[in-house]
Amino acid sequence: MMPSSTRKGVPKDPELADLFFKDDPEDVFCDLHEIGHGSFGAVYFARNSYSNEVVAIKKMSYNGKQTTEKWQDIIKEVKFLGQLRHPNTIEYKGCYLKDNTAWVSASFLLLFLFFHKKPLQELEIAAITHGALLGLAYLHSHNMIHRDVKAGNILLTELGQVKLADFGSASIASPANSFVGTPYWMAPEVILAMDEGQYEGKVDIWSLGITCIELAERKPPLFNMNAMSALYHIAQNDSPTLQSIEWSDPFRSFVDYCLLKIPQDRPSSGELLRHDFVRRERSPRILIDLIQRTKDAVRELDNLQYRKMKKILYQEKHNGPMGESQEEEEDSEAASCKMNSLGSNHSIPSTSVSTGSQSSSVNSMQEVLDDSCSDMTMMHPLDYGSTLDSSPHTKKVNTKHWDHLYNWDDGIHRDHRPELRPVSSDKSSQSYQHQGRFATIKSASLVTKQIHEHEQESELREQMSGYKRMRRQHQKQLIALENKLKAEMDEHRLKLQKEVETQANNAYIELEKLAKRHAVHTEKEIKTSQADEKKFQQQIVGQQKKELTTFLDNQKKQYKLCKEKIKEEMNEDHSTPKKEKQERLSKHKENMQHSQAEEEAHLLGQQRVFYERNCRAFKRKVMIKRHDGEQEQIREELTKKKTQKEMEHAMLIRHDESTQELEHRQLKNLQKLRMDLIRLQHQTELENQIEYNNRRERELHRKHVLELRQQPKNLKVLELQIKKQFQDTCKVQTKQYKALRHHQMEVTPKTEHKTVLKALKDEQTRKLAILAEQYEQSINEMMASQALRLDEAQEAECQALRQQLQQEMELLNAYQSKIKMQTEAQHEREQQKLEQKVSLRRAHLEQKIEEELDSLQKERSDRIKHLLERQEREIDSFDMESIRLGFGNLCMLDFPKDDYR
């Protein structure tokens, strides 16, 4: 979200709105004085109108090109500053928005400490390093990374408290993989972040090691090299070390420990705090003395400049602008010498990169304050100053300002005990009066030089800024593609998962339908069997009733025939008495009736046995039929499961092949984009190097042209010197001639005076002619010698420059070749890893398919086996029961159609 360019410009997003104050910063702050600037904007001294507190304001515009990127950088820095709560980090006051410009305010307890001509003492470096390590330990414990540790971003309070500054390049999360920082201080893993992966807080340890070398040697390693070439050198060569043998072994060990090439071998900030180098005994006033020494040096430099200006004004008034040129030249040389002893000859603004003043970090509160001359800064509680009264916010320049400009130390040693400070309203007025004497350790000449160099190096800063922007854009493109491919793969897997779930659901539904169909069929078979059994029973009962009826009818007929036969026999027998006949007939009837009753009972028994036996056999037949139906159903169910499983396996194989194809296509696209970005990066690096080479050659050509233009003047000066020497020689010869003539006149007779005078005159003329010839020869030799010397010097410079540029180009080509080879090796590893992953996944899939088929076959065998065993147990149990009931073996029973006996 971008804030609208309203008067206050507060964003509408509640989360972002909480990061900014809603007040108008032009109402909140007054007395603004510009004290430095960089590519992001300018830094001002200011006073809070409500509390009279003095603060530093950094104005950052998010208008113009890369608006969104600038706004995101502002948001990130404000969020980061808002989280800092540690005595070894700067104190953040708040941020305001006004007309597409962010006003970031911090406590203006900062003055600037420049190096002297000599490096810092080892104990001073140890004290500064110890304080910086405390701040880094705090950041790393909260998973933060500074990413731009260097001397210019380490501040000191007047009481010697070390503070970290410049969090414009910091990362709130660890690990990170952005290409940020200042080139000469960058760790190798930061330079190769996009190519080799992420990095953690160990990058700050590397930068701290480079900072120690910077403090010890007044410049970081590789500083005489082009910034881009330095990046390539850091990425592929060995770690730098301290050059001088005068440093102690603990200091050397500390630096070497910080600059271990492999990040995993590099110590943490907590481990370094236990190192002997930072734990050694030192005076508690060591940094305070350093600050005071620097204040004295800067005051002396300003006084030199003041005396020079005063002398120039005095000479213009009395002697003209050309008078006393020798004294002016001496003062100028003295001032220049003092400047060199104070200003760091390798100051690096965190927003620019060049051969002389180079850096790269963006959005730094203190980067502009050390843009061209500071490698350290310090905090001052009450005295703040600036020699820049040319600020647009400064209305006029008065003599009072010039007075305090060269006596800025008047109030530095105020008593800081709170019990001695005024607590009434006088405090505000006194504070304001003291703050009105705006002073700083940064000298006027250095501030002016800073602005001049900043304007000159805009092209170099823009080149490095563009390179960083390109690297970040490449990283964003890779991340965007990776996210896109990940989303595509997630969508693909979700689609496959849904297809698998659909297949499983369909299989489950089909099995449910089959089970229901089997249940319905079984129920129907049971009902049919019951009906058949009932019908079978009714059929047997009917046949037996019919048989019984026929049997009874036959018995009746037989009984009637037997009765008539007996009657006939009795009628023929007239001897037997009638009564006896009657008794015999009755007895015969009873016997027949008893016999028929037994036959009927026997028939009924046979029918009952036949009925029960056939019903039992029918039940056995129904049970066998039911068993056959169960076998058929389980075979159908298992066959269905096998078919479904085969379809599932075919689908999984198809899914695996489609996934494999997608993975190969995605890897190919990712690697293609990576190679395209690397080619674009290498092309840009090559173009930048060529542009840098051309610029160096143009600068050298301009220098040589100026030397050629200046040569006639130099030759004229040398000619005048030679002419003066010959004039002196002529004067000496003239005096000698006069003395000789006077002596000859005294010792020679008058008659010979004319001849002697003529001889002396001829001798003098001859010697002057020889002297004139020598003069012309000296002039010619001087002309030829100077021309030759200039040509040789310029040719030597051209040759040295060509050799240096050739070495840098070769270094760039070697670095690019290494990166290309590493990328190709990475692609080969990724391809092999993917092939291994695909092969392993396919093997697991095939193993899963085999295991599932084996499991399905085992399930089939087990279920059929269990079914057959159960059915066999049921039949055996049924047969045993049949045998117990006396029905014998019913398996061979045949059902007669007519006779059931």
Given helix and strand content, the structural type is: mainly alpha
Q: Helical content, roughly?
A: 55-70%
Low-confidence stretches are 4-8, 110-115, 321-439, 895-901
The main sheet orders its strands as: 1-2-3-5-4
Subcellular location: Cell membrane; Cytoplasm; Lipid droplet; Membrane raft
Protein name: Serine/threonine-protein kinase TAO3
Catalytic activity: L-seryl-[protein] + ATP = O-phospho-L-seryl-[protein] + ADP + H(+); L-threonyl-[protein] + ATP = O-phospho-L-threonyl-[protein] + ADP + H(+)
Coiled coil: 464-517, 761-818
Verbal overview:
The protein has about 900 residues and is mostly helical. It is built from 19 helices and 9 strands. The chain has helices at about 15, 25-30, 65-85, 120-140, 190, 195, 200-215, 225-235, 250-260, 270, 275-280, 285-320, 325-340, 400-405, 425-435, 445-455, 460-570, 580-745, 755-885; strands spanning about 30-35, 40-50, 55-60, 90-100, 100-105, 110-115, 155, 160-165, 375-380. The strands form 2 sheets. Strands 1-2-3-5-4 form a 5-stranded antiparallel beta sheet. α4 (about 120-140) runs antiparallel to α7 (about 200-215). The longest helix has about 170 residues, at about 580-745. Mean pLDDT is about 80; it is low at about 5-10, about 110-115, about 320-440 and about 895-900.
